[in-house]
Write a structure and sequence with these properties.
The complex is a heterodimer of chains A (193) and B (126). Chain A is mostly helical and 193 residues long. Chain A is built from eight helices and no strands. Chain A is globular and about 60 Å long. The N and C termini of chain A lie far apart (61 Å). The chains are: A mainly alpha (193), B mainly alpha (126).
Chain lengths: 193, 126
């Protein structure tokens, strides 16, 4: 029994799964889940919550598979949208929030010295702390644009807002992040030279 | 001032690049749970719905009715069953009383005020 062709599109794999081909499950899981998990981690700042959101989003994908219309939309866009809405729902149910710094992965570059790696880690921690200080919609837009590298039209579809609104959110979010991090430049090892 | 802003934005872009270069690995237990969910969801779509189960039961009864001869036969069967129950409860004189066959004898005593009630209830007599 052969593995499904990894050159198949996400659409094609989902159709295979809906028609009972279990081999498509692993391929789809490894293609879509990491992105979903990564963006949830950045938006929520909490590993356990990100895992819950990812599992729930993927469960919704499996359940809607029989009704998926190939070619009408990007499956990844659909999944991002579900994940972002789940993140919003989760935060609305909570009072306050906190940053789980363990949610930020350590840099894996072994060519850098320990001190440099610690500094990189500190900078990534600072980025996540700063992200958590943004209003939720700004944070989602900035993460989708500058970390997931989605286009403004794609983000518009995910967040169900106009392209102009996406541009406004990402511009304001980025300015706010720069201002937050400016106060920590010396601590994070940035020089003026 | 503008230079400071440009510098801050450049440093922020560098942080974004580093964030993209260090994606959070998907935990193994999460991947396993997601793949298990896929099988559960698939099984859910294949399980018969309540409406489908009702249609299945109706189909079986329809087959039974056809086998015994349709609605008139069902009516006759019901009537025969009712007669059989009546004969059992109140048999004609030439037939044995089924109650006597199982050892039941009609009693006119009132058990409530007698020793028999205590025996029936299993209470200790003082």
């Amino acid at each position: 029994m052969g593995e499904p062709d990894s050159n198949l599109s996400d659409d094609a794999l989902l159709v295979l799964y809906a028609n009972g081909d279990g081999r498509a499950v692993q391929e789809l899981t490894m293609r879509l889940s990491p992105r979903c998990f990564g963006v949830a981690m950045r938006v929520l700042g909490n590993r356990a919550e990100a895992e819950d959101v990812t599992q729930e989003a993927m469960m919704r994908l499996w359940r809607m598979a029989p009704n998926w219309q190939p070619g009408q939309a990007q499956l990844s866009t659909w999944l991002y949208r579900v994940a972002m809405n789940l993140c919003i729902d989760l935060k609305r149910r909570q009072r306050g929030g906190y940053v789980d710094l363990d949610a930020v992965p350590e840099p894996a570059d072994t060519s850098r010295s320990a001190a440099e790696q610690m500094q990189d880690g500190a900078r990534q921690d600072a980025l996540q702390v700063a992200l958590m200080q943004l209003p939720e919609r700004q944070r989602q837009a900035v993460v989708l644009r500058h970390i997931e590298e989605l286009t403004n039209p794609e983000i518009s579809g995910i967040m169900d807002i106009s392209v102009e609104a996406v541009e406004s959110l990402t511009a304001r979010g980025k300015r706010a992040l720069a201002a937050i991090l400016a106060g920590r430049r010396e601590e994070l090892g940035y020089s003026d030279g | 001032m503008m230079a400071d802003t440009d510098k801050a934005m450049q440093e922020l872009d560098d942080l974004f690049t580093a964030a993209r270069d260090t994606p959070a690995p998907l935990p193994a237990h999460l991947a396993k749970a997601i793949m298990s969910d896929a099988l559960i969801a698939r099984a859910e779509t294949q399980a018969p719905t309540p409406a489908a189960k009702t249609r299945l039961r109706a189909g079986i009864w329809q087959q039974l009715m056809v086998a015994i001869g349709g609605l008139p036969a069902v009516g006759g069967l019901a009537a025969a069953c009712a007669v059989g129950v009546w004969i059992g409860l109140a048999p004609p004189s030439f037939l044995p009383d089924p109650a006597q066959l199982v050892g039941y004898t009609e009693s006119t005593s009132v058990p409530y005020e007698s020793f028999n009630l205590a025996t029936v209830l299993g209470e200790e007599v003082q």
